[in-house]
Amino acid sequence: MEQRSTVRVERVIDGDTVVVSRVGTMRLIGVNAPEEGRCGDDAATRFTRRRLKDKRVEYELGEDRRDRWGRTLAYLRRGDTMHNRALIEEGYAKALTIPPNDKYADRFEAAEEKAKQRDEGPQADCAQKRQEVALGRARANERAERAEQAERLARRVRAAERRVKRQQRRDRGDRGDRGGAGGGGSSAARAPKNCSGVSGPIPTPPRDPNNLDVDNDGQACE
Length: 222
What we know:
The chain has helices at residues 41-52, 83-89, 105-118, 122-183, 187-190; strands spanning 5-14, 17-20, 24-28, 31-32, 56-66, 72-78, 81-82, 94-95, 202-203, 219-220. By secondary structure, the protein is of the alpha+beta class.
């Protein structure tokens, strides 16, 4: 038969940890409220403080009576309500089963499922916030990936343009060499010194010694 003792809750540390008279620090069995700084921790702490602070409660020890930090492991009841289960059922904590302290595990898991079906309370709000954060990160990653793809494409286009311009310069140089070999004399001597008197654009002179093709498009005196 379970043995219960009555104590007074002197201080609430967080949602699932309190300090009680004659015992000291007590960790509630079967529940896991958010740690300090996590989403929902303030709400869980306020819930426990509102229900238990300065109240007399009954406690029932677990089979394992202490955790590795030396805290007493117990179930707390105020009247007919077990606070461990209330935390879960109201959406302030999740069920956490650690054998051999699993006497009420089925009840706690059922309470968690009930809270999920209602889809309300701090844990539901936190789940929604986590989804929103994950969605935001996914969208940011997608934008970054698109930007990176666009930059890679732009680099390829610029590289192709540079190759085309280099080839055009080589082609103009080859034409100039062939013209010089066939007609004799200096190609620079045959090139006009300026565009005065030149009617319309003309093919860029070989080597373009007088810089008549200012935009390097193969047409001079445009």
